[in-house]
Protein backbone atom coordinates (compact mmCIF):
# COMPACT_ATOMS: atom_id res chain seq x y z
CA UNK A 1 0.00 0.00 0.00
CA UNK A 2 2.85 2.34 0.80
CA UNK A 3 4.36 1.78 -2.67
CA UNK A 4 1.01 2.40 -4.38
CA UNK A 5 0.50 5.55 -2.32
CA UNK A 6 3.97 6.80 -3.23
CA UNK A 7 3.34 6.16 -6.92
CA UNK A 8 0.03 8.01 -6.73
CA UNK A 9 1.64 11.00 -5.03
CA UNK A 10 4.45 11.04 -7.61
CA UNK A 11 1.93 10.99 -10.45
CA UNK A 12 0.00 13.89 -8.94
CA UNK A 13 3.20 15.89 -8.48
CA UNK A 14 4.26 15.18 -12.07
CA UNK A 15 0.92 16.31 -13.47
CA UNK A 16 1.08 19.48 -11.40
CA UNK A 17 4.59 20.21 -12.63
CA UNK A 18 3.58 19.67 -16.24
CA UNK A 19 0.60 21.99 -15.87
CA UNK A 20 2.91 24.84 -14.83
CA UNK A 21 5.74 24.07 -17.25
CA UNK A 22 5.81 25.72 -20.66
CA UNK A 23 5.92 23.22 -23.49
CA UNK A 24 9.28 23.34 -25.31
CA UNK A 25 7.48 22.54 -28.56
CA UNK A 26 5.03 25.39 -28.00
CA UNK A 27 7.82 27.81 -27.15
CA UNK A 28 9.74 26.91 -30.28
CA UNK A 29 6.66 27.37 -32.44
CA UNK A 30 6.29 31.03 -31.45
CA UNK A 31 8.98 33.10 -33.16
CA UNK A 32 10.15 36.21 -31.35
CA UNK A 33 9.49 39.47 -33.22
CA UNK A 34 12.60 41.13 -34.67
CA UNK A 35 13.47 44.36 -32.86
CA UNK A 36 14.19 47.27 -35.19
CA UNK A 37 15.49 50.66 -34.02
CA UNK A 38 14.38 53.55 -36.21
CA UNK A 39 15.60 57.12 -35.63
CA UNK A 40 13.67 60.26 -36.51
CA UNK A 41 13.89 64.04 -36.20
CA UNK A 42 12.46 64.93 -32.80
CA UNK A 43 10.75 68.04 -34.23
CA UNK A 44 9.24 67.44 -37.65
CA UNK A 45 5.48 67.87 -37.13
CA UNK A 46 3.08 66.57 -38.24
CA UNK A 47 5.16 63.60 -39.44
CA UNK A 48 7.38 62.84 -36.45
CA UNK A 49 7.94 64.63 -33.16
CA UNK A 50 8.09 64.02 -29.42
CA UNK A 51 4.89 64.62 -27.45
CA UNK A 52 4.87 64.01 -23.69
CA UNK A 53 8.06 61.99 -24.00
CA UNK A 54 6.81 59.71 -26.78
CA UNK A 55 7.24 59.66 -30.56
CA UNK A 56 4.10 60.80 -32.36
CA UNK A 57 2.95 62.00 -35.77
CA UNK A 58 1.46 60.95 -39.08
CA UNK A 59 4.52 59.05 -40.33
CA UNK A 60 5.02 57.52 -36.87
CA UNK A 61 1.49 56.13 -36.82
CA UNK A 62 1.83 54.73 -40.35
CA UNK A 63 5.18 53.11 -39.51
CA UNK A 64 3.84 51.58 -36.29
CA UNK A 65 0.90 50.04 -38.15
CA UNK A 66 3.16 48.69 -40.92
CA UNK A 67 5.66 47.27 -38.41
CA UNK A 68 2.88 45.44 -36.57
CA UNK A 69 1.72 43.86 -39.82
CA UNK A 70 5.32 42.92 -40.66
CA UNK A 71 5.89 41.27 -37.28
CA UNK A 72 8.53 43.80 -36.24
CA UNK A 73 9.10 45.14 -32.72
CA UNK A 74 9.61 48.86 -33.30
CA UNK A 75 11.88 50.99 -31.11
CA UNK A 76 11.77 54.67 -32.07
CA UNK A 77 14.84 56.84 -31.44
CA UNK A 78 14.04 60.59 -31.52
CA UNK A 79 17.09 62.83 -32.01
CA UNK A 80 17.86 66.38 -33.23
CA UNK A 81 17.79 66.69 -37.03
CA UNK A 82 21.59 67.01 -37.31
CA UNK A 83 22.00 63.62 -35.61
CA UNK A 84 19.49 61.58 -37.62
CA UNK A 85 21.94 60.16 -40.17
CA UNK A 86 24.66 59.82 -37.51
CA UNK A 87 22.52 57.24 -35.71
CA UNK A 88 23.19 54.83 -38.57
CA UNK A 89 26.92 55.37 -38.24
CA UNK A 90 27.19 55.00 -34.47
CA UNK A 91 24.77 52.07 -34.17
CA UNK A 92 21.94 53.80 -32.36
CA UNK A 93 19.53 52.92 -35.18
CA UNK A 94 19.04 50.37 -37.95
CA UNK A 95 17.03 52.76 -40.10
CA UNK A 96 15.90 56.39 -40.26
CA UNK A 97 12.64 58.07 -41.26
CA UNK A 98 10.68 59.93 -42.55
CA UNK A 99 13.18 60.75 -45.29
CA UNK A 100 12.24 62.24 -48.67
CA UNK A 101 13.19 60.04 -51.61
CA UNK A 102 15.27 61.91 -54.19
CA UNK A 103 17.99 60.96 -56.73
CA UNK A 104 20.84 62.13 -54.48
CA UNK A 105 19.66 60.10 -51.49
CA UNK A 106 18.97 56.98 -53.56
CA UNK A 107 22.74 56.79 -54.09
CA UNK A 108 23.26 56.52 -50.33
CA UNK A 109 20.18 54.70 -49.06
CA UNK A 110 17.73 51.94 -49.88
CA UNK A 111 14.16 53.11 -49.29
CA UNK A 112 10.95 51.43 -48.29
CA UNK A 113 7.72 52.12 -50.12
CA UNK A 114 6.42 55.61 -49.25
CA UNK A 115 4.80 56.00 -45.84
CA UNK A 116 3.36 59.42 -46.71
CA UNK A 117 3.32 61.64 -49.79
CA UNK A 118 4.03 65.28 -49.04
CA UNK A 119 5.85 68.06 -50.89
CA UNK A 120 7.07 71.62 -51.14
CA UNK A 121 4.68 74.58 -51.06
CA UNK A 122 4.94 78.36 -51.05
CA UNK A 123 3.79 80.26 -47.96
CA UNK A 124 3.17 84.02 -48.11
CA UNK A 125 2.12 86.72 -45.66
CA UNK A 126 -1.51 86.75 -44.61
CA UNK A 127 -3.80 88.31 -47.21
CA UNK A 128 -1.40 87.86 -50.13
CA UNK A 129 -2.23 85.46 -52.99
CA UNK A 130 -0.07 82.35 -53.32
CA UNK A 131 2.32 82.90 -56.25
CA UNK A 132 4.08 80.47 -58.55
CA UNK A 133 7.83 80.61 -59.17
CA UNK A 134 7.39 82.58 -62.40
CA UNK A 135 5.93 85.42 -60.34
CA UNK A 136 8.87 85.23 -57.92
CA UNK A 137 11.60 85.98 -60.48
CA UNK A 138 14.00 88.46 -58.89
CA UNK A 139 12.25 88.13 -55.53
CA UNK A 140 13.40 86.50 -52.30
CA UNK A 141 12.35 83.04 -51.18
CA UNK A 142 13.41 81.67 -47.80
CA UNK A 143 13.70 77.96 -47.05
CA UNK A 144 15.34 75.89 -44.28
CA UNK A 145 18.37 73.72 -44.93
CA UNK A 146 16.64 70.81 -43.15
CA UNK A 147 15.39 69.16 -46.31
CA UNK A 148 15.78 68.98 -50.10
CA UNK A 149 13.89 72.16 -51.07
CA UNK A 150 16.89 74.52 -51.10
CA UNK A 151 18.78 72.40 -53.63
CA UNK A 152 15.64 71.83 -55.70
CA UNK A 153 14.87 75.55 -55.96
CA UNK A 154 18.48 76.56 -56.65
CA UNK A 155 18.67 74.16 -59.60
CA UNK A 156 15.28 74.81 -61.15
CA UNK A 157 14.66 78.47 -60.37
CA UNK A 158 18.03 80.26 -60.55
CA UNK A 159 16.35 83.67 -61.01
CA UNK A 160 14.93 83.49 -57.49
CA UNK A 161 16.96 85.02 -54.65
CA UNK A 162 17.26 82.15 -52.20
CA UNK A 163 17.78 82.60 -48.46
CA UNK A 164 18.72 79.35 -46.72
CA UNK A 165 18.00 79.31 -42.99
CA UNK A 166 18.72 77.02 -40.06
CA UNK A 167 15.13 75.92 -39.50
CA UNK A 168 11.43 76.50 -40.17
CA UNK A 169 11.07 79.09 -37.41
CA UNK A 170 13.73 81.32 -38.96
CA UNK A 171 12.22 81.07 -42.46
CA UNK A 172 8.74 81.91 -41.19
CA UNK A 173 10.02 84.88 -39.20
CA UNK A 174 11.89 86.17 -42.26
CA UNK A 175 8.66 85.92 -44.26
CA UNK A 176 6.52 87.71 -41.68
CA UNK A 177 9.12 90.45 -41.12
CA UNK A 178 9.29 91.22 -44.85
CA UNK A 179 12.83 89.93 -45.42
CA UNK A 180 11.40 87.39 -47.87
CA UNK A 181 8.50 87.43 -50.33
CA UNK A 182 7.68 83.76 -49.85
CA UNK A 183 8.77 80.78 -47.78
CA UNK A 184 9.26 77.41 -49.46
CA UNK A 185 8.37 74.81 -46.86
CA UNK A 186 7.13 71.27 -46.56
CA UNK A 187 3.37 71.49 -47.04
CA UNK A 188 2.16 69.74 -43.86
CA UNK A 189 5.11 70.62 -41.61
CA UNK A 190 5.06 74.26 -42.70
CA UNK A 191 1.36 74.64 -41.96
CA UNK A 192 1.67 73.02 -38.52
CA UNK A 193 4.76 75.01 -37.48
CA UNK A 194 3.32 78.29 -38.84
CA UNK A 195 0.27 77.89 -36.60
CA UNK A 196 2.60 77.59 -33.60
CA UNK A 197 5.28 80.17 -34.48
CA UNK A 198 3.41 82.90 -36.42
CA UNK A 199 -0.31 82.18 -35.90
CA UNK A 200 -2.59 84.05 -38.29
CA UNK A 201 0.28 85.80 -40.06
CA UNK A 202 0.73 83.59 -43.14
CA UNK A 203 -1.48 82.23 -45.90
CA UNK A 204 -1.40 78.44 -46.03
CA UNK A 205 -1.01 77.10 -49.59
CA UNK A 206 -3.50 74.87 -51.35
CA UNK A 207 -1.14 73.33 -53.91
CA UNK A 208 2.34 71.80 -54.06
CA UNK A 209 5.14 72.89 -56.37
CA UNK A 210 6.96 69.59 -55.78
CA UNK A 211 5.63 66.25 -54.56
CA UNK A 212 7.85 64.21 -52.23
CA UNK A 213 7.33 60.67 -50.95
CA UNK A 214 8.58 60.12 -47.37
CA UNK A 215 9.91 56.68 -46.50
CA UNK A 216 12.14 54.62 -44.22
CA UNK A 217 15.80 54.62 -45.28
CA UNK A 218 18.58 52.10 -44.56
CA UNK A 219 22.26 52.24 -45.58
CA UNK A 220 22.72 51.25 -49.22
CA UNK A 221 22.94 47.49 -49.71
CA UNK A 222 22.87 46.59 -46.02
CA UNK A 223 19.29 45.84 -44.93
CA UNK A 224 17.31 44.58 -47.91
CA UNK A 225 15.56 42.12 -45.58
CA UNK A 226 14.22 44.93 -43.41
CA UNK A 227 13.04 46.93 -46.42
CA UNK A 228 11.21 43.86 -47.76
CA UNK A 229 9.45 43.28 -44.43
CA UNK A 230 8.41 46.92 -44.13
CA UNK A 231 7.14 46.95 -47.71
CA UNK A 232 4.99 43.94 -46.90
CA UNK A 233 3.57 45.74 -43.87
CA UNK A 234 2.92 48.94 -45.83
CA UNK A 235 1.14 47.00 -48.58
CA UNK A 236 -1.01 45.27 -45.96
CA UNK A 237 -2.19 48.48 -44.26
CA UNK A 238 -2.96 50.04 -47.63
CA UNK A 239 -5.00 47.00 -48.60
CA UNK A 240 -7.04 46.83 -45.39
CA UNK A 241 -7.77 50.57 -45.21
CA UNK A 242 -5.60 51.35 -42.16
CA UNK A 243 -3.28 53.66 -44.12
CA UNK A 244 -6.19 55.75 -45.40
CA UNK A 245 -7.81 55.98 -41.95
CA UNK A 246 -4.57 57.30 -40.41
CA UNK A 247 -4.15 59.91 -43.15
CA UNK A 248 -7.80 61.00 -42.95
CA UNK A 249 -7.48 61.50 -39.19
CA UNK A 250 -4.53 63.89 -39.62
CA UNK A 251 -6.14 65.80 -42.47
CA UNK A 252 -9.13 66.46 -40.23
CA UNK A 253 -6.99 68.16 -37.56
Largest sheet: 10 strands, mixed
Please tell me the CATH architecture of the largest domain by its name: 3-Layer(aba) Sandwich
Number of self-contained structural domains? 2
The counted number of beta strands is 13
Tell me the β content.
25-35%
Order of helices and strands: HHEEEEHEHEHEEEHEHEHEEHH
**CATH level-4 homologous superfamily of the largest domain:** Periplasmic binding protein-like II
Outline: globular
Distance between the termini: 78 Å
Which regions have little confidence, pLDDT < 50, spanning 5+ residues? 1-30
CATH topology of the largest domain: D-Maltodextrin-Binding Protein, domain 2
Quaternary structure classification = single chain
- Radius of gyration, in angstroms, nearest whole number: 25 Å
Percent of residues in helical segments?
40-55%
Structural class: alpha/beta
Mean pLDDT: 88
Number of helices: 10
Would you state the CATH class of the largest domain? Alpha Beta
Protein name: Solute-binding protein family 3/N-terminal domain-containing protein
Signal peptide: 1-27
Domain Solute-binding protein family 3/N-terminal: 35-252
Keywords: Signal
Tell me what the structure shows.
The chain has helices at 2-20, 24-29, 58-70, 86-90, 103-106, 149-156, 168-177, 187-197, 224-239, 242-251; strands at 34-41, 43-44, 48-51, 54-56, 72-79, 95-100, 109-111, 116-125, 140-144, 161-165, 182-186, 202-203, 210-219. The chain is globular. Helices cover 40% and strands 28% of the residues. The chain starts with a helix and ends with a helix. The protein contains ten helices and 13 strands. The chain folds into two domains: 34-117 and 213-251, Periplasmic binding protein-like II (D-Maltodextrin-Binding Protein, domain 2); 119-210, D-Maltodextrin-Binding Protein, domain 2, CATH 3.40.190.10. The protein is of the alpha/beta class. Strand 9, helix 6 (149-156) and strand 10 form a beta-alpha-beta unit. Strands 1, 5, 6, 7, 8, 9, 10, 11, 12 and 13 form a ten-stranded mixed beta sheet that branches. Strands 2-3-4 form a three-stranded antiparallel beta sheet. This is Solute-binding protein family 3/N-terminal domain-containing protein.
Amino acid sequence: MQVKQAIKLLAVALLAALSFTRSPLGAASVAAAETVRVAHDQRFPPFAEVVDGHSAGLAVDVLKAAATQAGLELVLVPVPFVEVQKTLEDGRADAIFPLAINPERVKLFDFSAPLVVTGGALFVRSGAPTPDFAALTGKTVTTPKTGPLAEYIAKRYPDVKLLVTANYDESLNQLVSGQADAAALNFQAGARIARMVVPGKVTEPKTLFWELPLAVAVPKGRRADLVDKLNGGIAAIRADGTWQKINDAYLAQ
